[in-house]
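S.,

Sequence below, as promised.
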Amino acid sequence: MSVLTTVPGSAPAEEEPPDTGERHRLTSVTGLAALSLDAMASVAYGPEAIVLVLAAAGAHGLGFTLPVTLAIAGLLAVLVASYRQVIAAFPDGGGSYAVAKAHLGKCTSLVAAGSLVLDYVLNVAVAVTAGVAALTSAFPALYEDRLWLCLAVLVLITGVNLRGIVESARVFIAPTAVFVASIFALIAVGLFRSGPVSTEAAAGHASGLADSATTVGALLLLKAFASGCSALTGVEAIANAVPSFRVPRVKRAQRAEVALGAVLGVMLIGLSVLISRFHLQPVEGVTVLAQLADASLGHNWAFYVVQFATMILLALSANTSFGGLPVLLKLLARDNYAPHVFALKADRQVHRHGVLALAVVSAALLVFSGGDTNTLVPLFAIGVFVGFTIAQVGMVRHWRLEKGPGWRGKALLNGFGALLTGVSAVVVTATKFEEGAWLIVIALPLLVLAFETVHRAYVRIGERLALGRVPEPPHRDRSIVIVPVSSLSRLTSEALTAAVSLGDEVRAVTVCPPDTEDRAQAHALARDWADWNPGVPLIPLTSEHRALGRPIAAYVRETAAAAPDAQVTVLIPEVEPERLWQRLLQNQRGAVVAHAVRRDTDAVICRLRFRLG
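The prediction came back faster than expected:
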């Protein structure tokens, strides 16, 4: 096994000294811009999801749009209040994972973590495809290239996030402000209109109302409520990323959470009021938000501002995942449920490996779906409802244990929220099961199993390393250093100089293939070695199949067996070229030897880099 840079239970090494300062962290405003894009952009599809379900009951069913939205706004208020408490109680971030770990046990916490991971990954894919779909709707000629456009947007967002979460927040402040301002302007103007000023956007498109309307029953309203709750995705992101905020982190994160809830709630209710006022109905090929912009602002430049702002924010709302998932992976790595590499930070407070892992998995989803939003939407939002429910139940237990002032009211509030989100999770899973939700039902347990597998591996490593116990004092063993060589050069001299400095006994070895030409080269090397006489024996190793690594590994095993009390080291000399591209010119002999020795022996491997230039 290669040497580990971190061990279970220990803090992973940082890639730079902790001298980054607070300037690379978020304020309340930049936190709102960086971590709320998912929730903000959900107003583009949340109200539409409600309308599409209620349309099954015809025009009468659409009359329940506002009551259903008010119920969702009520749940939003419950969630915001709950996650404010989560932020205060768990300032290290992690959201529902941290709550479940503290109050609901290991298994539940891993389910919460798995649901969050799935939600974050799917959010990236859905956001990017939805944004590109808005673009291709405006420019149909780009439709065939939508997958490449999706991948290009993903690369752009990943690149911005690799520069740091503060940099990404600054980039996204302007699009967020334009989107929010345009939606508020749409609502404000629409409230002063008695009817739609234009219906040009929907003209010529088929109506989405059901031909044979069903009755408005409890099941239909529950389904509309559950579908509309997709507008609540992203509410938990701020609580998951509290460590990314500046000091005082809790207060800044709480202010950002409240601002998010207020803005999102006003937009959802305002749009729902306009839907009822203008008696809008779903039509094929035109979003409800586009119809609202047309009816309120007219089919003019303001209409296109709303459309382009929506398109940009949908595409960029993937940034919420890039802010939240790396922090969650860091916590999982700290608890030994994810590889420790996810806990490393680069400069600018970036969890680089988490960002890159999210980008790679999201790219795979984009390729799988072909850049089609409808393929991914049935998988979306189930994970976040599971996370919501676990967090609410965990907070109920938190209040029962803390029993601070007003704890009964707080516990009742969280319990009511858990009931609502739990019912929503069941309804969404049941109604979307055949449309692809079954993948989430399978993926979530597999992800939890992966967490457990990683944890067991770290436990075994910890036992082998005797972590937590005082080790034996170090002692000196006899040292044998083996140096593979192929010719005489300055590299050979440097390698032997290093070897005699490291070991009590040094042996040079060279592999002799069976070909006549190769044998001649081996004889020439032996003759030159005798003339040079470096004081180190040269041992020829026969290779019948022109293999390089296996003969050296076999010799190392023989040496270790003959001297069981000795420490065997293989020192592999390699050239470090001046230019990066010049590495393509190397024969990779060192890598071949190192791989064979690492695979077949327990010897220490030392790779000596000789820098050119």
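Residues 1-20 have pLDDT under 50 and may be disordered.

Coffee later?
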